[in-house]
Structures are given as C-alpha cells and as structure tokens.
Amino acid sequence: AGGWIGTAIGGGASYMKVQDVCTAGNAEACKRVKFTESGGFAGGLAGGVGASYLLSGAAVGTICAGLSIGTLGAAGVVCGVLVIGAGSLAGGLVGGIAGEMAGEVIYEGLK
C-alpha cells in the first residue's frame, strides 16, 4: 500500500507543479514543465521499481544473511525491508532526475 500512496503523492505533486506554472501565463514554460514533470515522474517510478526488482531475492539475502543468524531471522527481515526501501528510494531519485533530463531533451528537440 505504501508504494501506491507514494505514487499518488508524486503524481499529485507533479500535477500541482504543472498547474502552478501553466496558470502563470507563460506558454513556453508551461510546455516545458509538462515534459520535464512527466519525464521526472515516469523516470522516478521506473527507477524505484527497477531498484526494488534488482535488490529483491538473492541480493538482499546476501546482504542480510549475517544478521539473520544471531536473531533467528528477525534482523534479516528488517534488514531486507530497509535495504529494498533505501534502494527503491535511491533508484526513484536517480530515475526522476534522469527522466526530467530526458523530458528536457525531448522538449528541446520538439521546439
């Protein structure tokens, strides 16, 4: 459920930024922000999902295996959640930046 909530908040924030810029009356800025915000949102979503996928399974097991031994697995579960969460956050941030840059390139190419 947390992923869906984060996606909704990210989409809402992008929508509000587009609305703010477009209501200011500058048509070029409005067009640009539509591309950059769409790219940033899509890139952030893809980056977060991709990082989660790459970290799930054997990668997290390898990272967290040592913690599981002394705690009968409890620390391993917490470690897994933290590693995947941090990786997903990092992937989302990097993907968002890359997507925003891609949106800018597309915008410039269409000018």
What number is the mean pLDDT?
88
Succession of helices and strands? HHHH
Low-confidence stretches: none
Largest sheet: none
Q: Which helices and strands, and how do they pair?
A:
Blueprint: H1 2-23, H2 27-55, H3 58-70, H4 74-110
Helix pairs in contact: 1-2, 2-4, 3-4
Defining traits:
single chain; 111 residues; mainly alpha; 4 helices
Description:
This protein has 111 residues and is mainly α. The chain is built from four helices and no strands. It is 91% helix and 0% strand. Helix 2 runs antiparallel to helix 4. The longest helix is centred in the last third of the chain and has 37 residues, at 74-110. The radius of gyration is 18 Å and the shape is elongated. The model has no long low-confidence stretch (mean pLDDT 88).
